[in-house]
Amino acid sequence: MVTLTAYITEHEDRFLEDLKGWLRIPSISTLPEHASDIRHAAEYAAQQLRDIGLERVEVIQTQGHPLVYGEWLHAAGKPTVLIYGHYDVQPVDPVELWESPPFEPTVRNGSIYCRGAADDKGQTMLVFKALEALMAVDGRLPVNVRVLIEGEEEAGGESIEAYVRNNPQRLQCDAAFICDTHMPAEDLPALITGLRGIIYTEVEARGARRDLHSGTYGGVAPNPLHALAIIISRLKDADGHIHIPGLYDRLRPPTPEEKAFWQQDPLHIARSLREEMGVAQLSGEEEYPPLERIWARPTLEVHGIAGGFTGEGAKTVIPAVATAKISMRLPPDLKSSEVFTLFERAVKQAAPPDVTVTVRNVHGGEGMLASPESAPVRAAAAALKETYGREPVFIREGGSIPIAALFSEILHAPVVLMGFGLPDDNLHAPNEKYSLAQYFKGIRTVASFLQKMG
Amino acid sequence: MVTLTAYITEHEDRFLEDLKGWLRIPSISTLPEHASDIRHAAEYAAQQLRDIGLERVEVIQTQGHPLVYGEWLHAAGKPTVLIYGHYDVQPVDPVELWESPPFEPTVRNGSIYCRGAADDKGQTMLVFKALEALMAVDGRLPVNVRVLIEGEEEAGGESIEAYVRNNPQRLQCDAAFICDTHMPAEDLPALITGLRGIIYTEVEARGARRDLHSGTYGGVAPNPLHALAIIISRLKDADGHIHIPGLYDRLRPPTPEEKAFWQQDPLHIARSLREEMGVAQLSGEEEYPPLERIWARPTLEVHGIAGGFTGEGAKTVIPAVATAKISMRLPPDLKSSEVFTLFERAVKQAAPPDVTVTVRNVHGGEGMLASPESAPVRAAAAALKETYGREPVFIREGGSIPIAALFSEILHAPVVLMGFGLPDDNLHAPNEKYSLAQYFKGIRTVASFLQKMG
Fold first, then answer.
1. Would the pLDDT of A30 be above 70?
2. Could B294 and A216 be called an inter-chain contact, meaning their C-beta atoms sit closer than 8 Å?
3. Do A294 and B213 touch (CB under 8 A)?
4. Whole-prediction pTM value?
5. Residue in A219, A299, A302 closest to B219 by CB
6. CB atoms < 10 A from the CB of A446, how many?
7. 3-state secondary structure A105-123
8. Which of A109, A210, A219, B405 is positioned for an S-S bond with B299, CB 3.0–4.6 A?
């Protein structure tokens, strides 16, 4: 009987060819002219699942792009793992900056260059290959598995959200596993144990009935742009403190381990942030370590202010209406709907009385916390240690992965965020690539993770 | 010998035909395809001046559109009056809203409808006709006269500014007379005794080297939009007070007469302002009467804020750079260059330390005060009383008329702002018109004004 490791080594070439075949399909989800490519990429994934030996494999039609589902549920008494990935990719513009054609997978310097190589076909395919290896070597899987692959991750993800909300029984599981993140460095395995949620809002201020000339009306006219400036400055001060009553009350303090990690910053993330931004000093709440600020503190940012005149030259208009796009990032303890209520109330309290303010909830999403003590996270950590020879670090991300929060909310399952991308993979940019070493190490790690879950 | 009044009455038809001929020339100064019309309109004005009997009549070439000059300097021992007007007009879009063709002068309901009827061909032509009547009846003018007509009033006015700065001797005068304003109502003659100046600026805030994602950087990134909000809110508070150290120090208190007029507001201007804006209450410094706020107080307005994302949807960008257009209106005692220095200093003091701020002086212009006690203003007031049967009101305007400030600055002459437009003349809009009664009353008033100056 061949060992798992030997099987993986022996089939590396084909594992790479199967990935290349998928990468050649330009499954750009936001461009309607790629609809048949989307379909083709979904069928390709379904065929992979059938080849592995999964059952009830199905390309599920949706309002948008299809989902791909497959399952293997014969590990009686063992946990069920829901595996997530996505087959859609970003557009390729500016195409002239690609060193090789964006949909012709090309190996250079130990990496495979292609749109989707890292995000997320490479990472999804390595999970398929781990399943294949387990099935081929043992004739069975060590856990029950459900696989759910979507085609709208780069386009809003509405179809999978509707499907998960409508089919929680079919997706019932003990852990969800998402392979769509990266490690801080190739010798530094990592697990992501926290994500921030978000509210995205539009704050509209209305003054006079029509646009006014500042010569004739300046001094007696309401100015919605000025009102927005006052509101924004009252919501967050120059030191990064947010003045929304009740916001900080519900914030859970981090664990001592997390706090120590953030303070010590052994990965020198603060220095990287400074260098990437080209600033001498980081902004924000100086009484909190930078890692806590980006991973575990609520933040408020204004993204744009519309209204009046921003063209060349000098127009002295006082606009009738102005709008600000303002979002907040929310640590997992802060629920987006509750924070929106607090936000709306604070905006109205901060508004000068001469404008009428309305606050629109554009969208919201929840954060996520995965305890390092949960069984799935411990299994993933042990697998990473086995493959990489060192303990993984537990990090958070400041952004949002809506599907993680959705699995957590609807399926009540701990979520394992373990990915093998690297910081220089050029996601969403020209010359996207994926390290071949990471691809093959990823297959071994995922196979080991599933074994340890069994 | 015919009297002046009889001469004017007798020639009303021709006075109107001469205006119509000028109005038919579509002398739009901002559209290059009207260059020959501009030239034609200038020649038409020059011919009018020759017909009156003015001397040294000249179409003066400039970097832009030509000026028209003429003089009559044989009133030995009498003052010299510099007369200003402009022959260029605004574009006519949206042309479909005109009830008669924009360049076909049409008389309806006692008004002549045409682009330029009020602004400023009608008002300039009535001054020409006053000169003609005086010359025809008396064989001479009661004062020395210089006439200077420009063709760029609607296009920045750069050529006349350069000409005035370079030729102060040729334009030497004891009073300047500008006929390009309106009266509050047709039975309410008015003289404008004050204009506000302006500084128009762009404030740029720079944070990180490049645009950032708020998920990854929110909490440690400088946000130039937020910095601008803080700066703007610190420059002016919600009660309309400007916090620029030194700004209010140089402000001269109004005369008791002005203060009483502003407080009593006999023209009910505050009510009109509320109705035009559709607001229940006026904004700004409530401890000052509304008329003082718009005519005699410095104000600060933000006109637009650029940077980040203002399109449809939700982009979580923290921009590297953001820019605000901010202007200030300045009562005559505040010099634009001095206020700009104070403004720039205050902006830099108000800026959070994590952004780099630069302040650009886009343009500046001075305000103007004309004492109601000066001889030219008293002569104009007496002429208005004679024609309209009541004392004129002395009002200010909150906006700027750069040529008035320029005459005041370069020629050191009191400026008479006496015009015969009405509030419903549709300046810069479709269906511009000029009241025929005001046209003929204007001729009589201007002739009387020049006689009283003599």
1. yes
2. yes
3. no
4. 0.88
5. A299
6. 27
7. CEEECCEEECCCCCCCHHH
8. A219
